[in-house]
Amino acid sequence: MGKGEGKGSGKGGATWSYAAVREDCSEIMSSGPACFLYGILALGAVIMGIVLWACSVKTVDSQENAIAYDAVWCKLQEQVLEEGMHGIPPFGQLIVWPAIYKTMNQEVSCNSLDGVEITVEMSFQYQPKSTALYELTRLYKDYDGYQKVLRWRARSAVRHACAKYTCQEFQTMRPYVNDEMQKQVETELSKAIYPENNDDAEITYGDFDGSMATLVSDLQLIYVWRPDVYEDAVTSKENARNDIALAEAERDQAITQAQTVQLEAYTEANRTINAAQTEATVIKQFAASNASAITEQYAAWTELYTAVKQAHGFTTEALLAYIGNRLMAELPSVTLNLESPAYVSFKDSLLTVPSPSSAPTTTMPSASSAPSAVPIPAPSAVPIPAPSAMPSATPTPAPIV
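RESULT FIELD:
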């Protein structure tokens, strides 16, 4: 023990001094057990440092963003940590959020505008805004809680879009339905955290209205399920529509066939009429020519017999008697339907006795030039009407029913 004096007193009246205590501590510290203790403490300090460093350094992936949370003091940091290694409070943790677009698939049951219950399958791509990760973490705790609310609100937006279209329009206007769903989902999810930061700030929001702060890239309407009863009704309606279209087509075909037959009949009738008019014209012209020839022949005979009567002083009865005698002499079997102008007993005298007036100086017509004993049929008493118009080269078109 040291020899110095201290200000205090120990047991048994021993006197303590600073120098004596330091000398005693030095002796103790330089002993073997003390060195061993120092080594253990130093090793513990090193291990503690390593543990603290491991708990205070975290790595953020290239496709992620993160918010640091101090689990000891229950404090959430506002800084958004991007890709790389970052220091955080000891024993803290990282709340990880995606830094790229993610895809969410859903099957949503909804009612159409006409009240038909349908089920749609759709998917869309989304990404939480990196500038709003601190507020999103405060609202939804982590990405899992955010996803749950995101799914609910997207489902609500899809139902609002479904209510604007009828069940049939989901088939006939599918692109418009898809666009309306995307518009509704974007409107529902892309609002800022705080309502006053939205474009429609005049609208009154609740505490959590418009609090998703999510970017929506695209939405795909994958499939639409409709009730079997509705599908059967649509199938029956389409079949009936096809039957009606077929009946209309067959009706048009039948009308076309009937019009073709009618047109052929009109064409044949026009051809028959034209042929008849042509034949009637030919007959009329032939009759007119024949009548003209006969008239001219009789006119020539009239002039000849007039000249004979004047030259020989014949009366009409004498001339006829002469002609009758000549005919009977050359054609014994001829029959005349005329009243006899002279008796048969005068035959010889008429052949030998000259006319009292004078001898004939003009050659009489031979029997071949005399009128034929066979009567020529007179023209028909019924006049043949002239055609109203020359036959047209183009057939008269049939009326279209």
